[in-house]
Amino acid sequence: MATIATGLRHAKCAGSIAAAQWRTAVLPRSTFSLAIRSITSDSQKTTPPNLEVEVAASVPIPYQGVTHARVVPATPSYFSREPQFNDLYIGISKLLTKYNHLPTVPPSEAPQMPWTKLEEMRAQMGEPIKASHYAKVMRVAKRLNLIEPSLRPQEVKVALTEFTRDINPFLNMPNPITIDKFGRAVGVGKRKESTARAFVVEGTGEILVNGKTLSEAFGRVHDRESAVWALTATQRLDKYNVWALVEGGGTTGQAEAITLAVAKALVAHEPALKTALRRAGCITRDPRTVERKKHGHVKARKMPAWVKR
Amino acid sequence: MASRVNIWGACRSLALRPRPARIAAQSFRSQISSTRFYADDATNKSSSPPSGNSSASGSTPESRPGNANARLTNELAQDASAGTVSSSSQARPSDALDDAALEQILYGGRPVTSQREGGLTEAQEEALYREGVIPPPEEAEAVLARSEAAAESQSIVSIETDVQKAGHKFGLPQKPYPEGFHVKKRYHPVLEQITRLLMRHGELSVAQRNMATVMNYLRTAPAPIYSPKFPLLPGTPPASHLPLNPVLYITIAIDSVAPLLKVRNIAGAGGGGRALELPVPLAVRQRRRMAFQWILDVINKKPSKGSGRNQFAHRIAEEIIAVVEGRSSVWEKRKLVHKLGTAARANVGSNKLKAKKKK
Amino acid sequence: MASISLRSLVRPSLPVAPRIQPIIIAAFSTTSLVSAAAPPAIKNRKDLPKKTKKTYKKKQNIVPVKKPAPGERKAFRKRIQLSNNSALPVAGLDALEAQTMARPESSGRMFAVPDEVVDQLRALEAFKSTQTWNLFRKPHVLVRKETVELMGRLEASLEKKEAFKCVLTGSRLSGKSLMLLQAMSYALLNEWVVIHIPEGQDLTNGNTEYSPVPDTEPMQFTQPVYCLKLLQNIYKANRAVLEKTPLKQDWSRLSATLKPGSTLADLALSAKESEFAWPTLSALWTELTQPGQPPVLLTLDGLAHINKVSAYRDPAFNPVHAHELLLVRTFVDALSGKTKLPNGGAVIAATSQNNTHFHPSQELALSQLEAGQAGKPVPKPDPYERKYDDRVYDALKNSTVMRLEGVSKEEARVLMEYWGASGMLRSVLDSRVVAEKWALGGHGIVGEMERASLITMRM
Hints:
- The complex is a heterotrimer of chains A (309), B (359) and C (459).
- Chain A folds into three domains: 2-74, no CATH class; 77-171, no CATH class; 185-279, Ribosomal Protein S5, domain 2, CATH 3.30.230.
- Chain A contains 13 helices and five strands.
- Chain A has helices at 2-12, 21-26, 29-37, 43-57, 83-98, 118-125, 131-145, 154-161, 214-217, 221-227, 229-233, 251-269, 274-279, and strands at residues 185-191, 194-202, 207-209, 212-213, 240-247.
- The longest helix of chain A has 19 residues, at 251-269.
- Chain B is mainly alpha-helical.
- In chain B, a hairpin with a 2-residue loop joins β1 and β2 (274-281).
- In chain B, strands 1-2 form a two-stranded antiparallel sheet.
- Chain C has 459 residues and is an alpha/beta fold.
- Chain C has helices at residues 2-9, 72-78, 115-123, 145-160, 176-189, 200-204, 224-244, 264-270, 277-288, 326-336, 360-374, 390-396, 409-421, 431-440, 446-453; strands at residues 109-112, 140-143, 164-170, 193-197, 211-213, 220-222, 296-301, 309-313, 319-321, 345-350, 400-404.
- In chain C, a hairpin with a 5-residue loop joins β8 (309-313) and β9 (319-321).
- Chains in contact: A-B, A-C, B-C.
- The A-C interface holds A 205-207, 213-216, 221, 224-225, 228, 232, 235, 237-238 and C 171-173, 431-432, 435-436, 438-443, 445, 448, 451-452, 456, 458.
């Protein structure tokens, strides 16, 4: 809105007003917009009654009531590096001072918001926003988000939408793993290039990987231990049977993919184990993979040997 | 504090800590454990010396009568303690430590085995793996109990909530979780460090196999014969206890030859373009790393005796036994480093160092 | 010109007037030219001066070390250590007796191997360096369900007066060689004569000497050196039994020392040189297959190697089938039932999974036998496979197949309790730990359980 007002002012060119810019930006809007419409055909009907007044008034007394010799920008941010962003900041900090007294919730209970990332904000506004400035603003926005949701004023809600993305990724939840009629829970795990599916069912501790026993599937004892770590750590190796299907990658990757798959399926059986399994390192997907090869390099980092010429 | 590297305080605290285990006399132990510095204020001991210092050493009921060596070291410890008490009021604790006491600290000279029949308690082993020294059993128990209490206070809340909603079928695992609970930290920390040092060309599984072979070699080898010339870590259990506990065996060997310090060369601080040699204390992991690197150097120069893929592991195991028996050349290296450190201790509070820092 | 050359050839008979010798400046040597040693004569390529590569690396001062003697390294690698003085002695376990392993109630228990049997087994080379005997104070064995079954069959063979022919098979590290060892100790305790071929591979990979037997078609071969060693091993292991048993036939043509009243031990000892080893061994075998002699246990480890075409060649440079080697043929004849054992006894062959090659006809024969025993449909031969060997089928067709897999959890528990009592397992031992190791060991494969709990960094 502020931009429109400025645009109008520029069109009028002589709109120098003595009042503070904040007010001018809002107050004279209607009149000026009328004036703009006067260019169109329908406004011509309205002009005649005004015309006499105007004519009477426009008996020229030059520069009467003009305090500024030049155009005054609509916002004080006009000369800043990031005017729109600065406006946002000013607006949001005013809101914070206004609603500072409202009760807050701890950060863990505040509603999750898909905050706009720095890159996105730069693209939206077309302004070279500094990362430090962005961080400052986001700090204020996150503080506003802590206000108890039931008591949150509409004004705040509207203001916060400026800082959020249109899509909420937090609504995009994975389907919960269910236990089917045979008592099986299927977990999927990945590591490096490997993918594993583990069918976990209550039983007596028999483990089969791709139809083979653990010792046939993995030559290294370390890998066998890794594969059933979720069961070993929670002392349930004699309580469940596992049928795992795993493909891709090498032995370490396959074994640790099975770890993750078994852990997920086990959590479906017994949700209370999740904390223990997280402490055992079985819940988190290990995101490390092979680093890509770059051009000009022999491998990911290796450079060709230096040759004099 | 950071501006002045105060090695002697640290060194003494490292070496003095286990001293009581050797003497095994309750009264003397309490007296010695009071000689502490700011470096180990975590143990909350009062720093004032107990009364009756002189009577304690000679008349302890459990001190062995025939052991002149023990007597001597007692006196030395007394010297050291007296020195430190006076030094706490003075500016430089390094001044107060006479050469004989330092000799004791750096090169030992005490009977190695603990007098306890049953070897180490679990708490003592735990402390050894964590800190690289063997504390007396009571102290170790206290530390262990404290850490357990802390862990339990953390877990109380979660247990209560668990009772309310049972999301499990066979009971939850006991808290605090045992050692090696995490899938990536399943091995003993000392072994883990050594295995990574053994590893060549990123072949971890080979290194682990070698480590397992080393441990099995130690288990099948006869018990070592301790050498009185090269004393091990104070409080070491009798030799017959080691083969069945290879982790302890390896830890004792490595921690015993580990240097307490290294000499850092500060470029240009010596004056006339020379480097200033400054002794710096090492942390436990650093010490173990250095000791094992020395052992590896020796191993790499040795020829293998047989053939097959276990030769490397066998050489490591043989060297570890040699270290414990005092036959290894690694002891010489340790002595050399300590000698250098002793010679360079005049530089600890050097003015030139301060001037350099200011600039 | 001609006169000068002629004169130079003529030996100067007249004293020549002294002349001024030219002074040779070039020679700095003070010794005369004659006394300088002549350069070594170059006779072949090896004597040519070698081009040495110039290295700029600093020479490390390598201390000259005494190199081990030939064979010493291998002996070190292959040595068998049967006791560990650091391990705790396990009290309360009975020693094996003659009938212990055949009794059903001893199933699932550990037993100590008696010392004299240990010596005999060592002489037979029944222990392997890959087995973990070196961790424990004394050799102990677990009597499994399958052990009791096998020993029952051995016992029954005595009554039936007929050989029990058996092939042990099963997955890797499942205890096939150990089962052979148990069978041998059973036989030794019951005063059988035990003949054991520790590695089938040694017979066929061409590493031992061989010589043709004259007047045979196709040509057959003996392996004199191996036979001599085998004969000595047999004597060492079975000395007590052999010394008690008199000869039934007259073997004086082999050796002058063999009188009519001498014993089998004399026969075994009569071969002092390798030329006489095979005739003596075959004589011993003939004696043992006579009625009235003690029962025999003939065992072999690594079956696949004696069913293939061997690495030997005949004089026409054709490859020799392993069954043409007389020692192998003796075993195969016994296994196929061609040679009867009238005193009872057993012929047991064990397959190996570590040291083996894929042998289609052996696989087929064993699977067919197994299916036939279980009453399942017998698998058909693969029509596209060309490498089937009828001789292998004939060799195996009369034998029983015994498959060894993992032990049950109860047996695993007994085994692990023994490990714990020896001080080799440091952790608490409860049913959860047993179940863990049982699963890690591929459902109770004994060797894999050992790997997972004894030969590991987590102990």
